[in-house]
Give the backbone structure.
Amino acid sequence: MTSSSRVSARLGAIAPSATLAVDAKAKALKAAGRPVIGFGAGEPDFPTPQHIVDAAVEAARDPKNHRYTPAAGLPELKQAIADKTRRDSGYEIDPASVLVTNGGKQAVFQAFAAILDPGDEVILPAPYWTTYPEAITLAGATPVEVFAGADQGYLVTVDQLEAARTENTKALLFCSPSNPTGAVYSQEQTKAIGEWVLEHGIWVITDEIYEHLLYDGAQFTPILREVPALADTTIVLNGVAKTFAMTGWRVGWMQGPADVIKAATNFQSHLTSNVANVSQRAAIAALTGPMDEVEAMRVAFDRRRKTMVEMLSAIDGFQVPVPQGAFYAYPSVEGVLGREIRGKVANTSAELAAIILDEAEVAVVPGEAFGPSGYVRLSYALADADLAEGVGRIQELLAQ
């Protein structure tokens, strides 16, 4: 048996999550005693709000939560998601059109798996979250990148999307607020993209997990609210991880047309069955409970955002579009590439990230994880003091 045949070509082609890899390396170095500061993980540093934890503790004591439940999710949670959609997005959905998943990533994969076949193409605005192209490829389709750089505020145009469209285009991935850039599409931009998609009969997979993390007056614009006629060809992805500091609880969901949700539910029934019931009960408490702690976290992220943008903008060679959503900054570092840094030269953002880790003991994610080289992503979901110290080290390193 050759080494190439030991692992299937399908799984052998998957690259590891770059963001998780950077976070794991930073944690390993810290465990080894090095004072590494990590900007890699997209994970709030706050504890899950106490009322959510209390609901989970109570649920764990109830034997009904020790058993299998419907693969599509607890009816109470699906109703809470429908109510939350009405409250936050401004349109009605049927709870039966919701599938609760083991985190947002499972929703992403199942959405692509449910509608894609070999030969299909998915238009993927770049910079993109590192998991999207892997999930598209695993579903047998081909991602078609459409890049919008810092000069465009990382926002693609309808003209760019049209230039990428072919007879094989099956879907568009739409993510606003964006990971990794923090860019937010305006109401006008969202409506224009939605109308273009509708005109050409293309599916939309819209990732809305950062909907509550907005700054500088930016507004979350659900594409289905702007173009309701897309309801039969749109899959909405969301979850509790980012808004409620619940990354470890693993509760996401997908919502869409009945036939797609049925197919994805059948798949999940064989893949993972139901999401852990205690986590589902916690998610119910999150979606139906007070939002004051969510707002407090958003205010803290906003403060950190301003600090990070100010400090990064002071670095010669960095171009820093101001993020209006999520909790990431995505500076262009093309002005630094080719420069000697403590006897080393970085010609790519991956090489620059390696130098920053080695010389400043700061972990950032290079742009290659999200599309073209020439950029780095830094999460500001970490303590204020660590943020200032980490960016300060980068400033000192690149000032030499």
Remarks:
- The mean pLDDT is 95.
